[in-house]
Amino acid sequence: MNHQTYQDWLFAPDPLDSQQQVELADHLAGCSACQNLASAWREAEQQLAHPQWAEPAPGFEARWQERVQKERARLHRRQSLLVLGFSLAIAALLLASLIMLALPVFAEPRLWTLVWLSRLVNFVNLADLTTSIIAGFGRVALDRVPLVGWMLLAGAVTELVVLWFVSLRLLLIPRRVENETI
After folding, report:
1. Is the model's pLDDT at 119 over the cut of 80?
2. What integer pLDDT is reported at residue 21 of this predicted model?
3. Does the N terminus or the C terminus of the chain have fewer Cβ atoms within 10 A?
């Protein structure tokens, strides 16, 4: 007996004509395998038509939020280590370059001492010149700039400092994960 035709009719998406329905009913009356298949298919169609939605396990949302927080913390730590690694690599390259430039100086200790002594004298002279320029500018600025101008300058500097700290906080402190419902 060929069951394939009847099984195809059972699963057909389009309705059967009257002759096919009669043949299928006659076959189902005498074939227990096709009866079992037909009843299983009807049950499956009913379950698909009226699905039962499963609720998540207790504590699922808390576990999910904890996992997201851990993942973000891991990502932040990884990014921080990556930035630190690049910074250290650049510092090492700069130090190596400085050492390469300074090797001839270190070969002759007397020359090295003279170079640093000269740089120290130049630094002291530069510091003295800078203080005299700043003092002169300060005397002139105090006479020329009114009190309102100084107040505006102090306010602008304060705003820039606050903006700097806010920017650093946003860039360096990881964001917290809030309980979000989607």
Report:
1. yes
2. 80
3. C
| Residue-number span of the structural domain to which 20 is assigned | 4-49
> What's the number of domains the chain is made of?
1
Alpha-helix residue ranges (DSSP H) falling in 31-146? 32-49, 60-107, 109-144
Asked whether residue 164 is domain-assigned, the answer is no
CA–CA distance, 87 with 57 (Å, rounded to integer) = 45
In a domain, 27, yes or no: yes
Summary mean pLDDT of the chain = 85
CA 73, distance to chain mean position in Å, is 10
Separation of alpha carbons 28 and 22, rounded Å: 10
Flag whether 71 is in a domain. no
Q: Which two tokens stand for residue 63?
A: 């576990």
For residue 166 the two structure tokens come to 């806010």
Q: Hey, what long-range contacts does 53-62 have (CB within 8 A, 24 or more apart)?
A: 61/179
pTM here is 0.33
